[in-house]
Design goal:
Blueprint lengths: L8 H11 L4 H24 L9 H12 L1
Helix pairs in contact: 1-2
Length: 69
């Protein structure tokens, strides 16, 4: 999708530097994808406690210890 957006120069320069992108487009696409991934992970984290059948971290550690020893 083609879109025209006015992005502050300093923000775009930082995005290019942080993403190590070769082009402005690559930096923007990478930054948006990273933002979306983080939001998806945050949503999964919020929902993680809503599954009573899942193991707790401590239960998983105990199971792993039994298998190792």
């Amino acid at each position: 999708m083609k879109t025209t957006v006015d992005i502050p120069d300093e923000e775009l320069e930082d995005a290019i530097r942080f993403t190590r992108a070769r082009t402005k487009r690559e930096a923007i696409v990478t930054a948006i994808a990273d933002f979306n991934r983080r939001r998806r992970m945050a949503e999964l984290t919020r929902r993680a406690g809503s599954c009573p059948g899942l193991m707790t971290v401590e239960e998983l550690r105990r199971l792993r210890r039994r298998r190792e020893g």
